[in-house]
From TrEMBL:
Pfam families to which the protein is assigned, alphabetical: 2-Hacid_dh (PF00389), 2-Hacid_dh_C (PF02826)
Every D-isomer specific 2-hydroxyacid dehydrogenase NAD-binding domain range: 144-303
Name of the protein: 2-hydroxyacid dehydrogenase
Domain D-isomer specific 2-hydroxyacid dehydrogenase catalytic: 52-331
Keyword Oxidoreductase in record: yes
SUPFAM superfamilies linked to this entry: Formate/glycerate dehydrogenase catalytic domain-like (SSF52283), NAD(P)-binding Rossmann-fold domains (SSF51735)
Source organism per UniProt: Streptomyces lasiicapitis
Keywords: NAD, Oxidoreductase
Family affiliation: Belongs to the D-isomer specific 2-hydroxyacid dehydrogenase family.
Length: 343
Protein backbone atom coordinates (compact mmCIF):
# COMPACT_ATOMS: atom_id res chain seq x y z
CA UNK A 1 0.00 0.00 0.00
CA UNK A 2 1.02 3.60 -0.43
CA UNK A 3 2.60 5.83 2.15
CA UNK A 4 0.73 9.09 2.23
CA UNK A 5 3.93 11.11 2.69
CA UNK A 6 7.42 10.82 1.39
CA UNK A 7 10.54 10.66 3.59
CA UNK A 8 10.73 14.46 3.74
CA UNK A 9 7.21 14.68 5.14
CA UNK A 10 5.93 16.24 1.91
CA UNK A 11 2.80 14.78 0.28
CA UNK A 12 3.70 11.85 -1.91
CA UNK A 13 3.59 12.44 -5.64
CA UNK A 14 0.58 10.91 -7.33
CA UNK A 15 1.26 7.44 -8.69
CA UNK A 16 1.25 7.08 -12.46
CA UNK A 17 -1.70 5.05 -13.78
CA UNK A 18 -1.99 3.49 -17.23
CA UNK A 19 -5.14 2.22 -18.93
CA UNK A 20 -4.82 -1.03 -20.92
CA UNK A 21 -7.90 -2.47 -22.63
CA UNK A 22 -9.59 -2.72 -26.02
CA UNK A 23 -10.05 0.47 -28.02
CA UNK A 24 -13.79 -0.14 -28.26
CA UNK A 25 -14.00 -0.86 -24.52
CA UNK A 26 -12.15 1.92 -22.75
CA UNK A 27 -14.59 4.72 -23.57
CA UNK A 28 -17.55 2.72 -22.32
CA UNK A 29 -15.91 1.47 -19.14
CA UNK A 30 -14.29 4.78 -18.24
CA UNK A 31 -16.48 7.66 -19.35
CA UNK A 32 -14.95 11.20 -19.23
CA UNK A 33 -16.32 11.93 -15.76
CA UNK A 34 -14.81 8.71 -14.40
CA UNK A 35 -11.46 9.57 -15.96
CA UNK A 36 -11.61 12.98 -14.33
CA UNK A 37 -12.34 11.33 -11.00
CA UNK A 38 -9.47 8.89 -11.52
CA UNK A 39 -7.12 11.75 -12.39
CA UNK A 40 -7.74 13.31 -8.99
CA UNK A 41 -6.03 10.32 -7.34
CA UNK A 42 -3.37 9.44 -9.89
CA UNK A 43 -1.33 10.93 -12.66
CA UNK A 44 -3.12 9.43 -15.62
CA UNK A 45 -0.80 8.62 -18.49
CA UNK A 46 -1.99 10.22 -21.75
CA UNK A 47 -3.77 7.91 -24.13
CA UNK A 48 -4.40 4.23 -23.56
CA UNK A 49 -2.67 0.99 -24.39
CA UNK A 50 -5.21 -0.63 -26.69
CA UNK A 51 -3.04 -3.25 -28.37
CA UNK A 52 -0.09 -5.45 -27.61
CA UNK A 53 2.09 -4.52 -24.66
CA UNK A 54 5.52 -5.51 -25.94
CA UNK A 55 6.16 -2.80 -28.53
CA UNK A 56 8.48 0.13 -27.94
CA UNK A 57 5.66 2.62 -27.36
CA UNK A 58 3.89 0.37 -24.84
CA UNK A 59 7.17 -0.34 -23.03
CA UNK A 60 7.86 3.37 -22.69
CA UNK A 61 4.45 3.97 -21.11
CA UNK A 62 4.67 0.95 -18.80
CA UNK A 63 8.08 2.01 -17.53
CA UNK A 64 6.53 4.64 -15.27
CA UNK A 65 3.34 2.83 -14.34
CA UNK A 66 2.59 2.10 -10.70
CA UNK A 67 -1.10 1.42 -11.32
CA UNK A 68 -2.42 -0.52 -14.32
CA UNK A 69 -6.14 -0.44 -15.00
CA UNK A 70 -7.00 -3.29 -17.35
CA UNK A 71 -10.18 -4.46 -19.05
CA UNK A 72 -11.53 -6.64 -21.81
CA UNK A 73 -9.02 -7.33 -24.60
CA UNK A 74 -5.98 -6.45 -22.51
CA UNK A 75 -3.13 -8.83 -23.43
CA UNK A 76 -1.78 -11.19 -20.78
CA UNK A 77 0.57 -9.67 -18.25
CA UNK A 78 3.44 -12.06 -18.72
CA UNK A 79 6.85 -11.89 -17.13
CA UNK A 80 8.07 -10.36 -20.39
CA UNK A 81 5.55 -7.54 -20.14
CA UNK A 82 6.25 -6.99 -16.44
CA UNK A 83 9.97 -6.72 -17.13
CA UNK A 84 9.23 -3.35 -18.72
CA UNK A 85 7.04 -2.19 -15.80
CA UNK A 86 9.51 -2.12 -12.88
CA UNK A 87 7.38 0.28 -10.81
CA UNK A 88 4.10 -1.61 -11.13
CA UNK A 89 2.44 -2.19 -7.76
CA UNK A 90 -1.22 -2.87 -8.50
CA UNK A 91 -3.40 -4.16 -11.35
CA UNK A 92 -7.08 -3.23 -11.19
CA UNK A 93 -9.16 -5.20 -13.68
CA UNK A 94 -12.26 -3.29 -14.78
CA UNK A 95 -14.05 -6.45 -15.90
CA UNK A 96 -15.09 -9.81 -14.49
CA UNK A 97 -12.72 -12.74 -14.84
CA UNK A 98 -9.03 -11.88 -14.56
CA UNK A 99 -7.94 -15.19 -16.07
CA UNK A 100 -7.39 -13.84 -19.61
CA UNK A 101 -5.05 -11.18 -18.20
CA UNK A 102 -3.14 -12.31 -15.11
CA UNK A 103 -0.20 -14.68 -14.80
CA UNK A 104 1.74 -16.01 -11.82
CA UNK A 105 4.43 -13.45 -12.63
CA UNK A 106 2.28 -10.77 -11.00
CA UNK A 107 2.18 -12.48 -7.61
CA UNK A 108 5.82 -13.47 -7.88
CA UNK A 109 6.59 -9.77 -8.23
CA UNK A 110 4.32 -8.93 -5.27
CA UNK A 111 1.87 -6.97 -7.43
CA UNK A 112 -1.63 -6.54 -5.99
CA UNK A 113 -4.45 -7.77 -8.23
CA UNK A 114 -8.04 -6.61 -7.98
CA UNK A 115 -11.10 -7.46 -10.07
CA UNK A 116 -14.43 -5.74 -10.60
CA UNK A 117 -16.11 -9.15 -10.69
CA UNK A 118 -18.49 -8.13 -7.90
CA UNK A 119 -19.75 -5.27 -10.05
CA UNK A 120 -20.21 -7.67 -12.97
CA UNK A 121 -22.07 -10.18 -10.82
CA UNK A 122 -25.23 -8.15 -10.28
CA UNK A 123 -26.36 -8.22 -13.95
CA UNK A 124 -25.63 -11.96 -14.17
CA UNK A 125 -27.70 -12.63 -11.06
CA UNK A 126 -30.57 -10.55 -12.43
CA UNK A 127 -30.46 -12.44 -15.74
CA UNK A 128 -30.33 -15.78 -13.95
CA UNK A 129 -33.31 -14.94 -11.74
CA UNK A 130 -35.28 -13.89 -14.80
CA UNK A 131 -34.45 -17.20 -16.49
CA UNK A 132 -35.44 -19.12 -13.36
CA UNK A 133 -38.76 -17.29 -13.26
CA UNK A 134 -39.43 -18.08 -16.92
CA UNK A 135 -38.41 -21.69 -16.25
CA UNK A 136 -40.79 -22.02 -13.31
CA UNK A 137 -43.63 -20.59 -15.40
CA UNK A 138 -42.96 -22.93 -18.32
CA UNK A 139 -42.56 -19.86 -20.53
CA UNK A 140 -40.77 -21.54 -23.43
CA UNK A 141 -43.41 -24.22 -23.87
CA UNK A 142 -46.20 -21.69 -23.49
CA UNK A 143 -44.65 -19.45 -26.13
CA UNK A 144 -44.07 -22.33 -28.54
CA UNK A 145 -47.74 -23.35 -28.39
CA UNK A 146 -49.20 -19.86 -28.22
CA UNK A 147 -50.66 -19.87 -31.75
CA UNK A 148 -52.23 -23.31 -31.56
CA UNK A 149 -53.62 -23.44 -28.06
CA UNK A 150 -54.51 -20.93 -25.36
CA UNK A 151 -54.10 -22.79 -22.06
CA UNK A 152 -57.02 -22.70 -19.65
CA UNK A 153 -56.38 -21.15 -16.25
CA UNK A 154 -56.34 -24.55 -14.54
CA UNK A 155 -53.37 -25.70 -16.65
CA UNK A 156 -51.18 -22.69 -16.14
CA UNK A 157 -48.08 -22.89 -14.01
CA UNK A 158 -46.62 -20.04 -12.04
CA UNK A 159 -43.37 -19.43 -10.29
CA UNK A 160 -44.57 -22.08 -7.86
CA UNK A 161 -42.38 -23.72 -5.26
CA UNK A 162 -39.76 -25.76 -7.10
CA UNK A 163 -36.63 -27.59 -6.17
CA UNK A 164 -33.83 -25.59 -7.75
CA UNK A 165 -30.36 -27.07 -7.95
CA UNK A 166 -27.45 -24.63 -7.87
CA UNK A 167 -24.14 -25.93 -9.18
CA UNK A 168 -21.37 -23.87 -7.63
CA UNK A 169 -21.31 -21.54 -4.62
CA UNK A 170 -19.52 -18.84 -6.59
CA UNK A 171 -20.16 -15.15 -5.91
CA UNK A 172 -23.04 -15.39 -8.40
CA UNK A 173 -24.28 -18.76 -7.13
CA UNK A 174 -24.40 -17.43 -3.58
CA UNK A 175 -26.34 -14.36 -4.64
CA UNK A 176 -28.80 -16.48 -6.59
CA UNK A 177 -29.38 -18.65 -3.51
CA UNK A 178 -29.92 -15.57 -1.36
CA UNK A 179 -32.42 -14.12 -3.83
CA UNK A 180 -34.34 -17.38 -4.09
CA UNK A 181 -34.59 -17.59 -0.31
CA UNK A 182 -35.67 -13.96 -0.08
CA UNK A 183 -38.56 -14.55 -2.48
CA UNK A 184 -41.93 -15.76 -1.25
CA UNK A 185 -42.12 -18.58 -3.80
CA UNK A 186 -41.07 -21.23 -1.28
CA UNK A 187 -38.39 -22.83 -3.45
CA UNK A 188 -36.22 -25.55 -1.99
CA UNK A 189 -32.59 -24.92 -2.91
CA UNK A 190 -30.00 -27.66 -3.37
CA UNK A 191 -26.31 -26.92 -3.75
CA UNK A 192 -23.35 -28.90 -4.96
CA UNK A 193 -19.85 -27.53 -4.46
CA UNK A 194 -16.75 -29.51 -3.38
CA UNK A 195 -15.42 -26.59 -1.35
CA UNK A 196 -18.53 -26.04 0.79
CA UNK A 197 -19.43 -27.91 3.98
CA UNK A 198 -23.00 -28.86 4.92
CA UNK A 199 -22.94 -26.22 7.66
CA UNK A 200 -21.81 -23.54 5.22
CA UNK A 201 -24.49 -24.56 2.73
CA UNK A 202 -27.13 -24.40 5.46
CA UNK A 203 -25.93 -20.91 6.37
CA UNK A 204 -26.41 -19.92 2.73
CA UNK A 205 -29.92 -21.36 2.77
CA UNK A 206 -29.33 -24.54 0.76
CA UNK A 207 -29.04 -28.29 1.29
CA UNK A 208 -25.64 -29.63 0.23
CA UNK A 209 -25.87 -32.71 -1.99
CA UNK A 210 -23.69 -34.43 -4.55
CA UNK A 211 -24.21 -33.71 -8.25
CA UNK A 212 -26.18 -36.87 -9.11
CA UNK A 213 -28.66 -36.25 -6.28
CA UNK A 214 -28.98 -32.61 -7.27
CA UNK A 215 -29.86 -33.62 -10.81
CA UNK A 216 -32.33 -36.30 -9.68
CA UNK A 217 -34.15 -34.03 -7.26
CA UNK A 218 -34.19 -30.68 -9.09
CA UNK A 219 -36.81 -29.52 -11.56
CA UNK A 220 -34.53 -26.60 -12.48
CA UNK A 221 -30.72 -26.77 -12.54
CA UNK A 222 -28.70 -23.55 -12.74
CA UNK A 223 -24.95 -23.58 -13.37
CA UNK A 224 -22.53 -21.23 -11.57
CA UNK A 225 -19.28 -23.19 -11.31
CA UNK A 226 -15.92 -21.94 -12.68
CA UNK A 227 -14.42 -23.17 -15.92
CA UNK A 228 -11.64 -25.56 -14.91
CA UNK A 229 -10.21 -28.73 -16.44
CA UNK A 230 -12.08 -30.78 -13.84
CA UNK A 231 -15.40 -29.01 -14.47
CA UNK A 232 -15.44 -29.49 -18.23
CA UNK A 233 -18.51 -31.53 -19.13
CA UNK A 234 -19.68 -31.45 -15.51
CA UNK A 235 -23.28 -31.76 -16.68
CA UNK A 236 -22.52 -34.82 -18.78
CA UNK A 237 -24.96 -36.94 -20.75
CA UNK A 238 -25.28 -39.16 -17.69
CA UNK A 239 -26.06 -36.25 -15.37
CA UNK A 240 -28.53 -34.68 -17.80
CA UNK A 241 -30.46 -37.95 -17.98
CA UNK A 242 -30.95 -37.81 -14.22
CA UNK A 243 -32.88 -34.54 -14.40
CA UNK A 244 -36.61 -35.35 -14.29
CA UNK A 245 -38.78 -35.05 -17.39
CA UNK A 246 -39.89 -31.46 -17.86
CA UNK A 247 -36.76 -30.15 -16.15
CA UNK A 248 -34.95 -26.98 -17.15
CA UNK A 249 -31.23 -26.22 -17.43
CA UNK A 250 -30.00 -22.65 -17.00
CA UNK A 251 -26.39 -21.76 -17.78
CA UNK A 252 -24.93 -18.28 -17.25
CA UNK A 253 -21.47 -19.56 -16.27
CA UNK A 254 -19.40 -21.18 -19.04
CA UNK A 255 -20.56 -23.34 -21.92
CA UNK A 256 -17.87 -25.96 -21.38
CA UNK A 257 -19.53 -27.07 -18.13
CA UNK A 258 -22.29 -28.80 -20.10
CA UNK A 259 -22.04 -31.53 -22.73
CA UNK A 260 -23.53 -29.46 -25.55
CA UNK A 261 -24.54 -32.30 -27.83
CA UNK A 262 -26.05 -34.33 -24.98
CA UNK A 263 -28.12 -31.31 -23.94
CA UNK A 264 -29.22 -30.79 -27.53
CA UNK A 265 -30.45 -34.40 -27.66
CA UNK A 266 -32.41 -34.07 -24.41
CA UNK A 267 -34.01 -30.83 -25.58
CA UNK A 268 -34.76 -32.16 -29.06
CA UNK A 269 -36.57 -35.08 -27.43
CA UNK A 270 -38.68 -32.56 -25.54
CA UNK A 271 -37.56 -33.91 -22.19
CA UNK A 272 -35.66 -30.82 -21.03
CA UNK A 273 -35.85 -27.09 -21.68
CA UNK A 274 -32.82 -24.81 -21.56
CA UNK A 275 -31.91 -21.16 -21.10
CA UNK A 276 -28.33 -20.72 -22.28
CA UNK A 277 -26.36 -17.49 -22.25
CA UNK A 278 -23.12 -19.40 -22.82
CA UNK A 279 -22.38 -22.37 -25.06
CA UNK A 280 -19.55 -24.63 -26.13
CA UNK A 281 -18.42 -23.73 -28.73
CA UNK A 282 -19.20 -20.06 -28.54
CA UNK A 283 -20.80 -19.01 -30.77
CA UNK A 284 -22.61 -22.14 -31.86
CA UNK A 285 -22.17 -22.93 -35.56
CA UNK A 286 -25.02 -21.91 -37.89
CA UNK A 287 -27.72 -24.56 -38.05
CA UNK A 288 -26.94 -26.05 -34.65
CA UNK A 289 -30.00 -27.76 -33.17
CA UNK A 290 -30.00 -25.64 -30.02
CA UNK A 291 -30.57 -22.52 -32.12
CA UNK A 292 -33.85 -23.70 -33.59
CA UNK A 293 -35.49 -25.73 -30.85
CA UNK A 294 -38.64 -24.03 -29.48
CA UNK A 295 -37.86 -25.14 -25.93
CA UNK A 296 -34.39 -23.57 -25.88
CA UNK A 297 -33.46 -19.91 -25.57
CA UNK A 298 -29.87 -19.09 -26.52
CA UNK A 299 -28.52 -15.58 -25.99
CA UNK A 300 -25.04 -14.33 -27.03
CA UNK A 301 -23.26 -14.08 -23.67
CA UNK A 302 -25.16 -10.98 -22.56
CA UNK A 303 -25.88 -11.82 -18.92
CA UNK A 304 -22.87 -9.86 -17.67
CA UNK A 305 -22.48 -6.11 -17.82
CA UNK A 306 -23.78 -4.72 -21.12
CA UNK A 307 -24.56 -1.24 -22.36
CA UNK A 308 -24.89 1.26 -19.53
CA UNK A 309 -24.16 -1.53 -17.03
CA UNK A 310 -20.52 -1.48 -18.15
CA UNK A 311 -20.10 1.81 -16.32
CA UNK A 312 -20.42 -0.12 -13.05
CA UNK A 313 -17.11 -1.80 -13.82
CA UNK A 314 -15.39 1.53 -14.33
CA UNK A 315 -16.86 2.94 -11.13
CA UNK A 316 -15.68 -0.09 -9.18
CA UNK A 317 -12.18 0.12 -10.67
CA UNK A 318 -11.85 3.84 -9.95
CA UNK A 319 -12.96 3.28 -6.35
CA UNK A 320 -10.35 0.53 -6.00
CA UNK A 321 -7.61 2.84 -7.24
CA UNK A 322 -8.76 5.46 -4.75
CA UNK A 323 -8.58 2.90 -1.96
CA UNK A 324 -5.08 1.93 -3.04
CA UNK A 325 -3.90 5.53 -3.05
CA UNK A 326 -5.35 6.06 0.44
CA UNK A 327 -3.53 2.96 1.67
CA UNK A 328 -6.73 0.98 2.28
CA UNK A 329 -7.44 -2.68 1.61
CA UNK A 330 -8.80 -3.45 -1.84
CA UNK A 331 -12.34 -4.84 -1.84
CA UNK A 332 -11.75 -6.89 -4.97
CA UNK A 333 -8.27 -8.17 -4.16
CA UNK A 334 -7.51 -11.63 -5.48
CA UNK A 335 -4.86 -14.00 -4.22
CA UNK A 336 -3.02 -16.49 -6.35
CA UNK A 337 -4.43 -19.48 -4.46
CA UNK A 338 -7.98 -18.33 -5.28
CA UNK A 339 -7.42 -18.20 -9.03
CA UNK A 340 -7.98 -21.90 -9.63
CA UNK A 341 -11.51 -21.68 -8.21
CA UNK A 342 -12.61 -18.57 -10.07
CA UNK A 343 -14.57 -18.30 -13.30
Amino acid sequence: MLDQQGQSGEPRRKPVAVLAMGADVVGRVLAPDLRQRLARSVELAPGELTGELTGAEARAVLAGAEVLVTGWDCPRLTAGVLAHAPRLRVVVHAAGSVKPVVTNALWERGVLVSSAADANAAPVVAYTLAALTFAAKGALSAAAHYAERWPPFTERTGADARTIGVIGASRIGRRVIAALNASDAGHRVLLTDPYVTPAEAAALGADLVDLPDLCRDSSIVTVHAPQLPETRGLLSAEMLKLIPDGGVVVNTARGSLIDTEALARECAAGRLDAFLDVTDPEPLPPGHALLSLPNVLVTPHIAGAQGSEVRRLGEYAVAEVERYVRGEALLGELRREELGRLA
